[in-house]
UniProtKB/TrEMBL annotation:
Cleavable signal peptide: none
The name this protein goes by in its record: Trehalose synthase
Gene3D superfamilies noted in UniProt: Glycosidases
Biased amino acid composition, Basic and acidic residues: 1-16
Region (Disordered): 1-51
Length: 784
């Protein structure tokens, strides 16, 4: 190839680079060092690198890079082309490289971004500040789907099922106006010429294309149209924190162009391979143990230990780093890489501060595809709290949580989504301050990890004290409930890490049960209470999930709190009491500001599946598969025992939606009444003003100011009262936020219950597992 180095990179030039594996220099500066064949170099004095003096630091850290300096005229001629078996799946086969590039997310992102660049659409919407109330006004009651668990008609895809007008008619009757599809794009990995299955429920994305298992782009677009016809919208997922081991990762391993810049991956030189474990033939990488992690950190190759090891399991995941087997690159060099993965080995972490900005380009392109091509209204940001990582002081774990780069990256992602008219929500299980600070510039909404374990604890113990503490702490630290997605069960475990109390505030003092206790001890106590009440001898059908939480459904959690120790113990006569407690938890989530989200497992009252039906899936410790049983929302396949993806059917306590909606006493019908009140009074966009003390430890009271005003011109005051016990309670509701002399009205039937006295209180009786939505009507004549 004879071409001017200063010439622009034409398509022909790019094609030649792909075939040779060489990144041709522009302006004389190559992308990466290459071995120059004999006889092709120019003047030796111009091309030979100068060996600098070895400093003390370089002796201490052998991986320390040499001083950056211009290296012009390094290439004196072109590399010889190499040819190999066209069937070979390695860096020396141009056909294989070309095949991977065609499938890569980075390539798609570059194409997608150019279609929007320079268009008026990029300037029509405000984007700098998150806007929770705008997001809530778009859709505030969500159905959260899980693609591999939905039972469909014979031959019907997941997306076709979600585009069914009959389903949307049922959703509309219940009050659901948004569907979060869950991950439906290609996921898993590539080995050789073959795709490998997902290792984390399709959260290990490897392509922007819809996975054929779930449907295609045309069906997805039809689903968005049907949703709009029923007043709803579609919410998709992006994963800013990691990908799967797809084409992008394989190209990165082969040191192809910008691709290594997508990931936190470090090339380990051959002279240091003795430090690395051997990778068995049937594997492409292995996790590093703590000793190897430490050895590589001491030599300066990686930053070493991070603040915690998520999904820690001895012999499976002992650190956040794994090492690849030897891989032949596009330049013929064999390399081994150590790469970061916060989650599973098959989920390499994206690098948000690489000079190529390849990771950022990949993620933004994926987001634009969902919003622009597929027609979604919003995106869930998965694993977005782990986008920055930095070496800490000697001997301290690396800084990997609450990092400013995570805030900056989230600002970029969320700003771009708002710029094209959408909104985002994040699942950020960190401290309340992290949720507040990230939400100040990033996602419009955050998943409610603050109160989720607390309201389960309240039901399990009949005591709302910890729940009242979490609600108040959230308000005090600036995270209003309107900015949260209050979810019931989703595909993940009941998370009980209680990161806020177990980490940053572990030494802070809190009053609990009349005693002062430190945050760390409080977190341990709540975890112990939940584990004892919901698993083991209390209920063998709920399982602990590593150190993160408990694998269960909402119905199986309730069953455990009501004394059912095995699945066989749960008989038909027990269903009404489980249903009542289920509706109580729904009321907690729905009768406060913010988004209310529920799953198919909630709508049908699904229990966990017996462990023996998912033995292979839980073999390596991922017990969450017991809670992901297949379910049939419309009752279209009553005799089918597994979903199309192979998930076994879970036992449903409530039955399919059409049957439920024919009975006014069913879970779905009563849920619809609960949501009707929510919509009528607009509590989704209200402001929480008080979580007062209660007359009985099993009661919870939340006081809100609605956006509407009464005849006096003041905001309407609304009160949510809940009974987390299985017995009726009599008590007094008292709060300084209640206007004197106001009449207390039950919003469900508009009956008057009494008057607020001079102590800002009134008496109330509430049934077992009861919930009351109360509205205060000021007496204008008395000037109340």
């Amino acid at each position: 190839m004879d071409m001017d180095d200063d010439a622009p990179r034409t398509d022909e030039r790019i094609a030649d680079e792909q075939l040779t594996g060489e990144r041709l220099p522009v302006g004389g500066i190559p992308e990466r060092d290459v071995d120059v064949p004999d006889g092709t170099a120019g003047d030796e004095d111009d091309t030979a690198p100068v060996a600098p003096d070895i400093t003390y630091d370089e002796q201490l850290y052998p991986a320390r890079p040499r001083r950056l300096r211009p290296r012009v005229n390094l290439r004196g001629g072109s590399l010889q082309r190499r040819f190999s078996d066209p069937r070979a799946a390695n860096g020396e086969n141009p056909a294989y490289i070309e095949w991977l590039v065609r499938q890569s997310m980075l390539k798609d992102a570059d194409v997608l971004s150019r279609t929007l660049s320079g268009t008026p659409a990029m300037w029509r919407n405000p984007y700098a500040r998150p806007d929770a109330r705008r997001a809530v006004s778009t859709s505030d009651v969500w159905f959260t789907a899980y693609p591999i668990s939905l039972i469909t008609r014979d031959g019907e895809s997941f997306l076709t099922a979600l585009a069914d007008p009959q389903l949307w008619t049922a959703f509309e009757r219940i009050g659901i106006n948004g569907v979060h599809t869950g991950p439906v794009k290609r996921a898993g990995g590539i080995r050789g010429w073959q795709e490998t299955p997902s290792v984390d429920g399709h959260f290990d994305r490897i392509g922007t294309q819809i996975d054929p298992t779930f449907g295609d782009e045309e069906t997805f677009q039809r689903m968005t149209d049907v949703a709009e016809e029923h007043g709803g919208s579609i919410i998709d997922d992006i994963v800013p924190g990691h990908t799967g081991k797809g084409a992008d990762f394989r190209l990165a391993e082969m040191a192809f162009k910008d691709y290594p810049g997508i990931y936190h991956m470090v090339e380990i030189p051959p002279e240091e391979w003795h430090l690395l474990p051997t990778v068995p033939e049937h594997r492409d990488s292995v996790n590093l143990d703590a000793a190897t992690e430490s050895a590589l950190a001491e030599r300066g190759y990686i930053i070493g230990e991070l603040q915690r090891v998520i999904f820690h399991q001895p012999g499976v995941k002992e650190t956040n780093w794994s090492v690849t087997a030897p891989v032949v690159g596009v330049d013929g060099t064999t390399r081994r890489w150590v790469y970061l993965h916060y989650f599973k080995e098959g989920q390499p972490s994206v690098n948000w501060l690489d000079p190529t900005f390849a990771g950022m380009r990949l993620v933004i392109g994926d987001a634009l595809h969902s919003l622009g091509d597929l027609g979604t209204s919003a995106l869930r940001l998965d694993a977005n709290g782990f986008l920055g990582v930095e070496k800490s002081a000697e001997g301290a774990p690396g800084w990997s949580e609450g990092h400013p780069l995570s805030h900056a990256a989230n600002h970029v992602i969320a700003g771009m989504v708002r710029k094209v008219g959408g909104f985002t929500f994040q699942e950020l299980n960190l401290t309340i301050e992290d949720i507040r600070d990230t939400g100040a510039v990033g996602a419009d909404l955050s998943y409610d990890f603050i109160n989720r374990p607390a309201y389960h604890h309240a039901l399990a113990t009949g005591d709302t004290e910890f729940l009242r503490l979490t609600l108040r702490t959230s308000l005090e630290l600036g995270v209003e409930p309107v900015s949260l997605v209050h979810g019931m069960q989703n595909h993940d475990e009941l998370t009980y890490e209680l990161v806020h109390w177990a980490t940053l505030h572990q030494d802070d003092l809190y009053t609990f049960h009349g005693e002062e206790t430190r945050g760390g001890a409080l977190a341990e106590r709540i975890r112990a209470d939940l584990t004892e009440a919901l698993t083991g001898d209390a209920a063998d059908y709920n399982l602990v999930f590593t150190t993160n939480g408990i694998a269960c459904t909402t119905a199986s959690l309730i069953a455990a709190t009501q004394g059912h120790t095995t699945l066989d113990d749960i008989a038909d006569e027990h269903v009404p009491q489980i249903r009542d407690a289920h509706l109580l938890l729904a009321a907690f989530n729905a009768w406060q500001p913010g988004v209310f989200a529920m799953s198919g497992w909630d709508l049908l009252g699904s229990l966990t599946v017996p462990q023996e039906l998912v033995t292979d899936l839980i073999a390596e410790g991922d017990t969450r598969w017991i809670e992901r049983g297949a379910h049939d929302l419309l009752g279209v396949a009553p005799d089918t025992e597994r979903s199309a993806s192979g998930m076994p059917r879970a036992r449903s306590l409530y039955g399919p939606l059409p049957e439920q909606l024919e009975s006014p006493d069913s879970f779905a019908s009563r849920l619809g009444e609960l949501l009707r009140v929510r919509t009528e009074y607009g509590i989704a966009s209200a402001r929480q003003v008080d979580v007062p003390e209660v007359a009985h430890r099993g009661m919870l009271v939340m006081v809100h100011e609605l956006e509407t005003t009464d005849e006096s011109g003041e905001p309407v005051v609304q009160i949510t009262v809940l009974n987390m016990t299985d017995t009726a309670l009599d008590g007094t509701i008292r709060s300084e936020s209640l206007p004197h002399g106001a009449t207390v009205v039950d919003a469900t039937d508009h009956s008057e219950l009494g008057t607020v006295d001079d102590l800002c209180s009134f008496p109330l009786r509430i049934d077992a597992y009861g919930s009351r939505f109360l509205v205060l009507r000021r007496n204008v004549e008395q000037g109340a």
